[in-house]
Each structure stands twice: as structure tokens, then as C-alpha cells.
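Researcher: Here's my situation. A collaborator sent me these components and asked whether they could plausibly form a single complex. I don't have experimental data yet, so a predicted model of the whole assembly would be a useful starting point for our discussion.
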Amino acid sequence: DGGITQSPKYLFRKEGQNVTLSCEQNLNHDAMYWYRQDPGQGLRLIYYSQIVNDFQKGDIAEGYSVSREKKESFPLTVTSAQKNPTAFYLCASTPTRVNSPLHFGNGTRLTVT
Amino acid sequence: GENVEQHPSTLSVQEGDSAVIKCTYSDSASNYFPWYKQELGKRPQLIIDIRSNVGEKKDQRIAVTLNKTAKHFSLHITETQPEDSAVYFCAAYSYGGSQGNLIFGKGTKLSVKP
């Protein structure tokens, strides 16, 4: 929906395991983002990428890693170093980074027990 | 860096009444202010945005006003309907530091009672 596909919708993992969340877009957007959403916390930026093979840390990057090998794809790995990984993760994209509205995917709800 | 405060955190109105959500921002260089609506379990969707060269923008029952001097902007929904019930997020584009990005408020849960 909206050209951004996140999978899976729900993900369950045991504590100590790394897990990778998928994000694919067919909008030909240059910039892609990962946000984390917790109840009452709004959306917090984890990582973003403006071009292929380049990405930057956001406000809460610790315990996460990303790659941008293709323009269409921006997977997020939640590592075992992330202390509180249970959350709703949203991927987004924009045509350019400056002053552009974000187009969001449908999100992945990760539960770690 | 930019800080965006959003109030109220919850808002309950009767169907047909108006709803107003207010946001303040700290970075005077910010010049782009979008509003997103998020229904339960779904992705945020852009409903309206405003740039700093205008003071007000309307789209049917939704309007946004911007006061750059006071550094605040507001979302106004008139003739509310039950389908307006959702969480609304304001955001401001921040140019601070080594990166520019949208900074979001913490959201307002709007409930429209039939």
C-alpha cells in the first residue's frame, strides 16, 4: 500500500536474537527512514539514508543497524544490544530529504520475550 | 536541536463539534510543518501540511494555522465525525546539527463521540 512494503506485519523473537525487518519501496524515492513508535512517545528516528550505500544515525540508533545496497531496499536489523526492542517499527521514504512529506509503510510490530 | 511539544495528549469531542490540536516548536529555522493521522494499528498518513511562507491552509474540514513569531501551529477539524477518531501527530522540519529531519510531537488521541 502506498508503494512501501514492510514485512512481516508481526514478528516474535526470543531475547538475545538478532532480527531483520524488511522495507521495500517502488516509488523511486531517494531517501528512506526507520522510525520506532512506542505508546505516548510519538515517532523517533532510528536511521535514515539519502542515497545508496550511505546512511546516517538518527536519535536512537544504538542497538540497530541498517544497509542500503539498493535504492528500493532499506532493511533494519534489531540486534541483541537493543535493550528494549519490543515496539512498532515504521519505514518511510521521501523523494528528497529536505521539506518533503514522509510516505510510511504499514509497519512491523516486533515482540521480544 | 528542534523540540516539538503537542497538546493535548487526549481530546474527546461530540460529533459535529470542532477539535483543535496545538504544537509549539523551538527551532526558528524550521519552515515545514506536516500533520499526520494514524488510525489504530495502521500507518501514519499525511492529512495536511504548511510551509512558513503562509499563515493558514485549508482542505475541506481541516485547516492548519502557523504563527512563526510565536513558533506554534495548530490543526483545526470542524464538523467532526466518528471516522476522525485517531491519533494525530504534528511535526516540524529541523535543520539542526549535521542532519535535517522531521521531528514529531508525541501525538494527540482524538475521540469523536456519536
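Model: Some features of this prediction you could bring to your collaborator: The two ends of chain A are 30 Å apart (CA to CA). Chain A has no helices and eleven strands.
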